[in-house]
Amino acid sequence: MLDNLTRRLANILASISNRGRLSEDDVNTMLREVRVALLEADVNFKVAKDFIAHVREKAVGEDVFASLSADQTIIKIVRDELTEILGAEAPKFNWGNEPPTVILMCGLQGSGKTTTCAKLAKWLIAQGKKPMMAACDIQRPAAVKQLEVLGEALDVPVYARTDGASPVQIAKEALAKCRHVMRDALIVDTAGRLHVDEPLMDELVAIFRATNPQEVFLVLDSTTGQEAVNVAEAFHERVKVTGAVFTKLDSDTRGGAVLSVRAATGVPVRFVGVGEQIEALEPFYPDRMAQRIIGMGDVLGIIEKAEIAFQGENVEDLEKTMKSGQFDFNLMLQQFKMMRKMGPLQNILKMIPGLGAQIPEEALSAINEKDVNRIEAIIFSMTPKERSNPDIINSSRRKRIARGAGTTVEEVNNLIKQLYTMRRSMKELSKMQSRMGKLGRRR
Ligand SMILES: Nc1nc2c(ncn2[C@@H]2O[C@H](COP(=O)(O)OP(=O)(O)OP(=O)(O)O)[C@@H](O)[C@H]2O)c(=O)[nH]1
Ligand SMILES: [Mg+2]
To answer: Torsions phi, psi of 278, nearest 5?
Structure first.
């Protein structure tokens, strides 16, 4: 879903991340690239333009160019702005005051209305509802049958009439029937339109008035690009559309319409269809989608976790000690403790920007907490003196430690070697930092 855009944006943002300070020129260059990426993904021209303008405005407003962590701030601004154009908070499903909840489905021909009716019925069942469907598309002879087959597969009753009754009539009766049999949601399937045509539009308005729906979902084919946005505008003018459902996001679509429709028409995206199967419907969450599009993994999740984990720990002292090359086994234990507080290692790795999607599942499961546990066992088998002063660990001590930890001397040797390597690289790092003009701490 939106793979190309995701890849492009992730690359652009990766090129600025870890740069720290950024000049206004850097940001302008980056924003130009973002704009091209959005347009190439078929995002509405005006939406893309406003997007860039807002990001720039916020960047200037927050004075990011003076900051040492401009890269992170800009990425956050881009993500927030994406969330904003996607609709900020996902609207809650409107169940209405008393059952049944009526959901009117509309859209152009072949957009996926009938399929989406069934997917939605399945979703409603998962929400604990007892849905019913109404077959109000009598334009196409096979349409009623199609809905009935889907209803049967889901064990959801379908109200239909094929004796020439009007769609409005069928809708009214379906609603009465739904109340009568105490079903609590009614999904109304309607006839498709080749393009926005008046007689069919009038019919839709009549069904709308007769059923007074809580939700009006406009089904849009995401492969039709910007045309979907025009369609949304036209429907929204006639019936109050409460949400868009974008279908066929599983196919190779540029998907820009999904990003544009809310900002261009005010109609929020509520669900997306990602396949032909009845299960292939996902609720749409602007914030998660934005996160996914910029491909940054759950950066905020990691930061939040780290902040919680480090609460109460004297992080600055720890850093100072490490830099001065005093790193010992006590500090190593302390680090493990903090890491543990952040949760399972595998989950954290998955959240790391750019890594998450790329590490194969098998590799992730190979990384386990057992390694950490083994190392800890070795450290626990040392005396306090040995932990704070590894230099005294001679060969007889190594043998004793190995025995105590139930491991080999070789493993103990390796761990001690690792500690010295870490000491050296930390010292070098701190020397480098002071040479680079005392960049200091970022936060
Ligand atoms: N790949 C994919 N195909 C979909 C999706 N949603 C619907 N389709 C397919 O799109 C085609 C049209 O779906 P329908 O549900 O019949 O569309 P409709 O809007 O009811 O069509 P009319 O009643 O003729 O106006 C079918 O072949 C569906 O399987 C989706 O999310 N992904
Ligand atoms: Mg249909």
So the answer is: -65, -25
Structure confidence by residue, pLDDT tens digits, 75-102 = 889 889 999 999 888 889 999 999 999 9
The first and second tokens of residue 69, run together, are 């962590």
Ligand 1 atom nearest residue 192's Cα: 25
* Ligand 1 lined by 114 (C-beta under 6 Å): yes
Each domain of the chain, given as residue ranges in start order, spans 3-85, 101-284, 299-435
Of 75-84, 332-341, 356-365, least confident by mean pLDDT is 356-365
Q: Are 192 and 113 in contact (CB under 8 A)?
A: yes
Which one of the ligands is nearest to 250 CA?
Answer: 1
pLDDT tens readout for residues 209-230: 999 999 999 999 999 888 899 9
What is the rounded CA–CA span in Å between residue 162 and residue 145?
10
Token pair in block for residue 409: 């001397």
CATH number of 101-284: 3.40.50.300
- How many C-beta neighbours within 10 Å does residue 358 have? 9
Q: What is the CATH number of domain 3-85?
A: 1.20.120.140
Q: In terms of CATH, what superfamily is 299-435?
A: Signal recognition particle, SRP54 subunit, M-domain (1.10.260.30)
**Pocket flag, ligand 1, residue 251 (CB < 6 Å):** yes
**pTM of structure:** 0.69
